[in-house]
Amino acid sequence: MKLSKSYIFLLLVLLTTEIGCSDLNLFGKKKIKEGVILYNITYLEESKDNPLIALLPTSMNMLFKSNNSVVKIEGFMGLFSFYYITLNHECFNSTVLRIFDKTYEYKIDCGKPAFGYQNMGELSITKLEETVNIAGLDCKRAKITIKGEKTLEFFVAYTDIIDIDKPNQNNPFIGIDGVLMEFQVNLNGIGMKFTAQSVTESPVSDEEFKLPQNCNAVDFKKMEELMGSFSSKPK
What we know:
The protein has 235 residues and is an alpha+beta fold. The protein has a single domain (34-231), classed as outer membrane lipoprotein receptor (LolB), chain A, CATH 2.50.20. It has helices at 5-29, 220-231; strands spanning 34-43, 59-65, 68-75, 80-87, 92-99, 102-109, 123-134, 137-146, 152-159, 179-187, 190-201, 216-217.
């Protein structure tokens, strides 16, 4: 049977459309097992009220692979770096701080608050029906309420497209079953908001999840003292 030119053209259009939709759904539907999330950091007070803010980092990277993750922040022109390493298969989280040529590690078991989250207070989570698109992903939203001397309320956004099991087991948002794409925390008295700017599906080296050589193990009190020298508000 001889096909007409118009039929062939229509068939090509349908095939092209089908392939295009398939490619689009590939990123939008499937789990992303390995890659990088880039977050923008904004501060919840003015630099005029705390001059230190002008020197603090403005971005954060989260690398993930094989159900493990590492969150990295660098600041003061590369003079220090601060990151969390979470290895789910070994069930531990390490807070790593590098200052100049010295590196320190504070280690905890899975399910316990990582360094910096201990003083956020008791919070409640109200999951919402609405969604929001962040960094190209449709995310669910939740309302966070923290009770204390003054009640604090804010919203977070999260996605289940990133393939990490129990991604919030070491932070105050443990009740949220998805990777946070927008959230805020208070670290050493400084309020910080994180918003994902991009999600890239790409290979991540296994070396990213290893501790630096000559890393000094410290307790919570020592890590707090070290971090305080960089993030505490001037008196």
